[in-house]
Amino acid sequence: MGNDAARHGANASAFLVNDSVTGLLNSSQFMKRAEELFYRQENGHESALLLVDLDRFSVVNNSLGHDVGDEVLRYAAQQITAALQPEDTVARVGSDEFLILCMDANDAQSAIAIGDRIVQSFDRPAVLNGVELQLSVSVGITSVTRRQNSIDIMHEVDSAMQRAKSQGGNQASLFEQGYSSRALYFLELEQALRKALDREEFILNFQPIYNAFDGALHGFEALVRWNRPGRGMVPPDEFIPAAESTGLILRIGDWVIDEALRQLSEWRQSNRFPAKLTVSVNVSPFQLANPNLVSLVRQLLTKHHLAPSDLLIEMTETAFVADESRMQATVRELAAAGVGLSIDDFGTGYSSLAYLRYLPAKELKIDRSFVAGLTTNARDEVLVSAVIALAHALDMTCVAEGVETAEQLEHLRRLGCDQVQGYFLGRPVPASALAETWQE
C-alpha cells in the first residue's frame, strides 16, 4: 500500500472509531474501510485477513463479571494493535473477536509472522482489575485478493480460526482447503450445545466403585453423556472440549452436579443401596476457576438434603497448571466445606508431587492406561505399586480405574489398592438400569 493510502488509513481510523469498549472500528466501519482499500489496490495484489478470537473469554466474563470482561477486551485491543503496523486496519467485530486487514502482507510467510506475533503478545499474565489472568488467542489467517467476494473470505478466515481453536488455541492457523467442512462441523456443534441443556438432551450414566477386598459397593461415578437428536450419543471427548471453548461447560457442569446429587438423594430414600453410598462428579478446570462453584455446591447439597461428605469432586492434574492460585483457593474452600476431593487420571497429566503437599485431596485415582498393562508390563506394575504406596503414605484412598479382567483385579488386591471400578465390575449405565438390576 502506498504512502498516501497509509496516511489516509491512519486518518480514517481517527474518525471512524465507534466501539465503545475498545475504541476500535466496529464491523460495518471495518467493511467500509476494507472496500476502500481493495478498490485502491492493484489486481493480483494479495493482502492478509486475520480473525483473532480470545480463548475462553466467556469463562472470564461469566466467572469474574462484565467489568473484568471489558478490561480484558481493552487489554486485548491494545496487545493486538501493538503487534501491528500503523497502516493495518483492526476492528472489534464480535463479543470477543477482532478482524485485521494487513494490506502489505503479500505472502503466507509474512501473514503467519503477524499471527504469531499477536499470539506471543499474550504470553505474559495480565493483571486486570486486581485479577491475574493468563490470556491467549486463536488466530485465523487467509490471503485476500481483489477478485474474491467477502462471503468466501470471511468463511475462510473463520475456518482457519476454528482450526486454531480446535487444536487447543494459543496459536495461529493459515486457511487450508478441505478443512472448512470440519470447521463448519464445530460451528454446528457449538450451536447444538447451546440448545442441548434447554432441550434436556444430556443424561448421566453411573459406574459403580467397589471396595477392592470385600466387594462392597462404595459409590458411583457420574458420567455425562449427550444424546443429540438425529446423531445419537456424542462422545464426551468431542463435546466437552467444545463446551469448554465456548464457556458452556459452566452450565453443563452445574447441571451434572445437581442431577448427580438428586439421583443420590433418590437412591437414599429408596433404601435399595448402601446408606453411606457416595457420588463422584468430574469437574473441569474452568469450573474450578469459577468463584461461584463452592456456593453452588453448598446450595445443591442443601437442596437435596445431603451431607458434604456424600459428594466427591474429581479433578485432573492439568487443572493446576493454569491459574493455580484460583484453583487452590476453590479446592481449599470445597475441602473446608467437607466435600471430598479426588485427583483423577493420576500420572497422565503434568504430574508434580509438589501440589500433593498442599492440596487437601482424600483420593488418588490410577489411570486406566496403567491398569491395562498391570499384568503384562513390569514397569506398569512398579508404577501402580508406587502410586498406591504414595497415596497411603499421604493418608489418601487409592482407586484404580479401567479394571477389565479378574487378573487385574487380583493384582490390584495384592498391591493393596483400596477401591476399583471398570467394565469387569460394571459399565456406566443410566440410573433406571441400576434400579432394575441392582441387588444389595
UniProtKB/TrEMBL annotation:
Residues 45-177 form the GGDEF domain. CDD domains: EAL (cd01948), GGDEF (cd01949). Gene3D superfamilies: 3.30.70.270, EAL domain (3.20.20.450). SUPFAM superfamilies: EAL domain-like (SSF141868), Nucleotide cyclase (SSF55073). It comes from the Bacteria. Residues 186-440 form the EAL domain. Pfam families: EAL, GGDEF. NCBIfam families: GGDEF. This is Bifunctional diguanylate cyclase/phosphodiesterase.
